[in-house]
Structures are given as C-alpha cells and as structure tokens.
Predict the structure of Regulatory protein RecX.
Amino acid sequence: MPRDTVDTSPRDDAIRLLARREYARAELASRLTAKGHAAQAVAECLEALAEEGLQSDDRFAESFVRSRVLRGQGPLKIRAELERRGIDRERLRAMLGAFEESGELDGFALARAALAKRFAGPGDTPRERARRERFLAGRGFDAEQVRHALEHAWDDA
C-alpha cells in the first residue's frame, strides 16, 4: 500500500524527517501541518520529541552553522537563514557568539578564503573589483569584511 494512503501519526512523519537531517522546530511544525496533521497534535508531538532529545533547535543551529561555514557563507547570510527557519534571536545570538569566540565563524577569514578561492586576484578595473564585492556581499559578508578581503585575500599567494 503506498505511504500516502496510510494514516500516519505526526510522530511517525517527524521521525521519518529527522532520520534524514536535523530540523528546526518551526520548520518541522510547518512540514507536519502541510502533511495534514492537526496543529495541536503537531505541537504535542514536537514537545515530546524535544523532551526525548530527538529534536533540538540548538543542535539544528549548530549543524546548520557548521555546514554553511564549510560552504564559505558569511555571518549575515547564516543569521538570515536561521531566522527564516524559525530560530529565535536570543538562541541565534548565543549560538553565533559561541562560534565567533571559538574562531569557527571568523567573517574576515571566511571572506578572504572565499574570495581567494573564486578569483585569482583583486581585479584590475573598477568593474572587476565591483564584481568581487557583489560576490562577497551575496555570500553574506558585511562591508568591512568585504573591504578586508579585497585587501588581504591574496597576501599569502
């Protein structure tokens, strides 16, 4: 019998989703309600999963930040994505602060590395420099990090 016709509980669907990857609570709630589960049942299910340690916004955010840092994304983009996925600002501030203190989320170093990986040099014309600036801004780096990267990305080369 196809799975669509089987009556599944919110917990069954949540476990199936969480088996693939971590989800933020808000993201998981949205997916479960989209599957037709009642809002109250979803809320109860998510509370139980959190109590059992099967769903954690902290664990999701930590995993998400690490994966985005490995992709060469900047702090602004990472913050925006986490907010969009329902991570509250206090948790977000604490999580990003911890990553910055540990040195894992150094926007200046990430911007330099992303720029050096993508471009062979700073560019000879204003148009080429603007292209590099847009590249970094699109990756989620602020103006200060962009300026720093343009000046120092190729220092070691």
Remarks:
- Residues 56-105 form a domain with the Arc Repressor Mutant, subunit A fold (CATH 1.10.10.10).
